[in-house]
Write a structure and sequence with these properties.
Blueprint (H helix, E strand, L loop, with lengths): L2 H9 L8 H9 L4 E4 L8 H9 L3 E5 L3 H13 L4 E4 L5 H12 L5 E4 L7 H7 L4 E6 L19 H7 L5 E6 L4 H10 L6 E4 L7 E6 L4 H11 L4 E5 L3 H13 L4 E4 L5 H12 L5 E4 L12 E6 L6 H8 L9 E6 L3 H11 L8 H23 L4 H8 L12 H4 L2 E5 L1 H18 L5 H8 L5 H5 L16 H13 L3 E4 L4 E4 L3 H6 L5 E5 L22 H17 L3 H4 L2 H10 L4 H4 L7 H20 L1
Parallel strand pairs: 1-6, 1-7, 2-4, 2-5, 3-4, 5-6, 8-13, 9-11, 9-12, 10-11, 12-13
Antiparallel strand pairs: 14-17, 15-16
Helix pairs in contact: 2-3, 13-14, 18-20, 22-24, 22-26
C-alpha cells in the first residue's frame, strides 16, 4: 500500500487535508517534524498513516488515559492493530500487552509520559524496532504552555537511551511562537520540517456574553440547544455542582466531572457523556485534553479561563466533526479575581523559585490577553488568531461581535467619578489602594475597613451606589484599556495613568462601545440560525438511529461507528451500492465491510417509503 491507499482503506478519506501530506512525506523520508494544526484538523493521521507504512512499531506519547483509550478504540474499529500502556491496566493486562508487543502484534503503541522512566518499559523498548516516536499535545513540554507537564521533559532523555534514534514527530493545536521554539529545543528535534496550518476553525461561532444573571443566561442557552451534545466549563468544583444541579432540576440530562469525585464516578460520568446517555457535561478543566468526542455542538464557559491558550483548547472540543458549533463565554469582572487566585496558587513545586516567578509573570500577561478578548468590540475570531500570530484580513462576519449591534455609550461622567475617587483616597491615606476598596467607596459600602479608614467622609463616597460592583469594575477595566488607569504590578494598586488628567481637567470625553445584547440579552433566533445541520431530513434521522443501535450493541460511543460528518455526507449521497458507499467521506474498507449492508438497507428503505 502507498499513503493514499492507507488513507482510503483504513480511514475512509480520498484526499489529505491541508498540511497532512507534507508532514507524512517528511516522516516517511526520515525527517523530524513539528505540526501545529487546529483541533479537528487531523493531526493524528499525520503519524497514524506513516505508522502503517513504516517497519516496526510507532510509539505515541499521549498525556491522558481517556485520550489513549479513544484513539486506540477508533484505530481498532478501522482495522488497525494498536494498544496502550498506562496506569489503568491491571498487572495481567500489562503483561499481555508487553507480550503481544514483543511479538510485533501492534503498529501503534500509546504510552503515558510517566511510563518512559520505568525499568520494565525501558527493557521492552530495547527489544523493539521503533520507527517513529510521535509526541501528542507537545505544548505540554513547555513551561510557557497552558498545560505544562514536567514528565514531558523526560522524553529527550528517553530518546537518548534508545539504541537507534527514531524519527520524532511533535504535534499540537495551541502553541504560540515561543512555545513552538520550546518544543523544538526540549525535544531536540533535528532540523524539523514545520507545518503550521493556522489556528482557524471556520465552523466554530465565537461569542462573549456579559449577562446580568449568569445562571439564567446559561440555562437559556442550554435549553435552546436541547438534545445536542455540549460541555459547560466552570472554574471551581462548587460551580460545577451548582450548575449541574440547576440543569438537572430543569430536566436537562446533565452530568459532572471534577477532581473531587471518586475515580469510579468520574469514569462513569465520562462514559455517560461519551455514549450520549447524558447530553451535557458540566466540568472543570480537569475534563481536558482526553476528550475526543466528535459530536459536541457547543462549549459554554461559565467563567473566563486564565489564558487564551486554555480557552481555545477547551472551546475547541466543539465541532470536531466539522459541523457548525458554538463557543460561548459568559464573562463577569469577578472572573479576574478568580483567575488571579488560581495563578497565585498554581503549584509548580517542581520548578525553582526563579522559574516559578517567571511562570507567574507570564501567567499574568496571558490573563491580560484573555481579559482583552472578553472586552474587545472587534472581531473575536481575529483577536484569537492575532494572539497566535496568524493574520486575518478583515472581520470574519461569523462571531458574536461581527454579528452584534454596537452602540457608543458616553462614560465621561462615571470615568471622572472613578478617577476622582482614586485621587481622593490617595490624598487621604497617603498611598494608593486596590480596585476592591475603590469600588466599595464608590458604591457607599459600610464595610468595616472603609469606615475605619474614614473613606466614607470623602466627596466621592457613594457616587456610584446605583451601579453594581461588576459594572464599576467593567468601567475601571475600560479606563485601563484607554490609558487612564494602571494597576501597579508590585502592589496591585490602582493608580492614575497618562490620559487621566485630560479626562479630569481638560474636557476630554470618553465613549465605550457596548454591544446591545450585553445590556439586554437578545431573543433566541434573531441574530443567527441554529448552528447544526443535523435536521437535514428523514434519511439522516434514520442513519443516526441505526448508528446509535450499532454503537449500543458494540459498547462503543456512536461517533466511533461513524462521525456526524460521515452520516451527513452519507445522507447527501444516498449511496445504493457498496462502491458508492465507499465514496462517502470517512468510510474505509474495514468499516464498509462491517457496517455497509446495514446502512445501505436503511437508505433503501427510506427511499421506498
Amino acid at each position: 500500500m502507498d499513503k493514499y491507499e492507507v488513507l482510503k482503506h483504513f480511514f475512509g478519506h480520498s484526499a489529505f487535508r491541508r498540511g497532512q501530506e507534507g508532514l507524512i512525506d517528511a516522516i516517511l523520508a526520515g525527517r523530524d517534524v513539528l505540526g501545529v494544526m487546529p483541533t479537528g484538523g487531523g493531526k493524528s493521521l499525520c503519524y497514524q498513516v506513516p505508522a502503517l507504512l513504516l517497519p516496526g512499531v510507532t510509539l505515541v506519547i499521549s498525556p491522558l488515559i481517556s485520550l489513549m483509550k479513544d484513539q486506540v478504540a477508533a484505530l481498532k474499529e478501522a482495522g488497525v492493530s494498536a494498544a496502550y500502556i498506562n496506569s489503568s491496566l491491571t498487572l495481567e493486562q500489562l503483561r499481555t500487552v508487553y507480550s503481544r508487543t514483543r511479538k510485533g502484534a501492534y503498529k501503534l503503541l500509546y504510552v503515558a509520559p510517566e511510563r518512559l522512566e520505568g525499568e520494565g518499559f525501558a527493557e521492552l523498548v530495547r527489544e523493539l524496532e521503533i520507527a517513529l516516536l510521535a509526541v501528542d499535545e507537545a505544548h505540554c513540554i513547555s513551561q510557557w504552555g497552558q498545560d505544562f507537564r514536567p514528565s514531558y521533559l523526560k522524553i529527550s532523555t528517553f530518546l537518548d537511551a534508545l539504541p537507534v534514534r527514531p524519527v520524532v514527530a511533535a504535534f499540537t493545536a495551541t502553541a504560540t511562537a515561543t512555545v513552538q521554539e520550546d518544543i523544538v529545543q526540549l525535544l531536540a528535534l533535528q532540523d524539523p520540517v514545520r507545518e503550521v496550518t493556522g489556528f482557524d476553525r471556520p465552523n466554530l461561532f465565537f461569542d462573549v456574553r456579559h449577562p446580568k444573571s449568569r445562571m439564567a443566561a446559561l440555562t437559556k442557552l442550554v435549553e435552546e440547544r436541547s438534545g445536542r451534545s455540549g460541555i459547560i466549563y466552570c472554574s471551581t468544583r462548587g460551580g460545577v455542582e451548582k450548575v449541574c444541579k440547576a440543569l438537572e432540576d430543569r430536566g436537562i440530562p446533565a452530568t459532572r466531572y471534577h477532581a473531587g469525585l471518586e475515580p469510579e464516578e468520574r469514569q462513569q460520568n465520562q462514559d455517560d457523556f461519551q455514549f450520549d446517555r447524558k447530553t451535557v457535561m458540566v466540568a472543570t478543566n480537569a475534563f481536558g485534553m482526553g476528550i475526543d468526542k466528535s459530536n459536541v455542538s457547543f462549549v459554554i464557559h461559565c467563567n473566563m479561563p486564565k489564558s487564551l491558550e486554555a480557552y481555545y483548547q477547551e472551546a475547541g472540543r466543539a465541532g470536531r466533526d466539522g459541523e457548525p458549533a458554538d463557543c460561548i463565554l459568559l464573562y463577569s469582572a469577578g472572573d479576574i479575581t478568580t483567575a488571579k487566585f488560581l495563578i497565585e496558587n498554581g503549584g509548580n513545586e517542581e520548578l525553582s523559585p526563579e522559574e516559578r516567578e517567571a511562570v507567574r509573570k507570564h501567567d499574568y500577561e496571558r490573563l491580560n490577553a484573555m481579559v482583552d478578548y472578553c472586552k474587545t468590540a472587534g472581531c473575536l475570531r481575529g483577536h484569537i488568531l492575532s494572539y497566535f500570530g496568524q493574520r486575518q484580513d478583515g472581520p470574519c462576519g461569523h462571531c458574536g461581535n461581527c454579528q452584534g449591534d454596537f452602540v457608543e455609550e458616553d462614560v465621561t461622567v462615571p470615568a471622572q467619578m472613578i478617577l476622582s475617587c482614586v485621587v481622593r483616597v490617595r490624598e487621604r491615606l497617603g498611598y494608593y489602594v486596590g480596585k476592591t476598596l475603590i469600588t466599595q467607596v464608590l458604591r457607599g459600602s459600610r464595610d468595616q475597613r472603609v469606615l475605619e479608614l474614614g473613606l466614607d467622609k470623602l466627596s466621592t463616597y457613594g457616587l456610584m451606589a446605583r451601579l453594581s460592583a461588576g459594572r464599576v469594575r467593567e468601567l475601571m477595566e475600560f479606563l485601563e484599556l484607554e490609558g487612564c488607569l494602571r494597576v501597579n504590578p508590585l502592589h496591585s494598586t490602582l493608580e492614575p495613568a497618562g490620559q487621566a488628567r485630560q479626562v479630569l481637567f481638560e474636557g476630554q470625553t470618553l465613549s465605550m462601545p457596548v454591544r446591545k445584547d450585553r445590556v439586554q440579552e437578545k431573543k433566541p433566533g434573531k441574530d443567527r440560525p441554529a448552528p447544526s445541520a443535523s435536521e437535514s431530513g428523514r434519511l439522516l434521522d434514520a442513519l443516526q438511529g441505526l448508528r446509535s443501535r450499532l454503537a449500543q450493541a458494540e459498547g462503543v460511543p456512536a461517533y466511533i461507528v461513524f462521525s456526524n460528518a460521515a452520516l451527513a455526507d452519507m445522507a447527501l449521497r444516498a449511496p445504493r451500492t457498496m462502491e458508492e458507499f465507499l465514496e462517502v467521506s470517512g468510510v474505509g474498507r474495514v468499516k464498509a465491510a462491517k457496517y455497509g449492508e446495514a446502512f445501505l438497507r436503511v437508505i433503501k428503505e427510506c427511499s421506498e417509503n
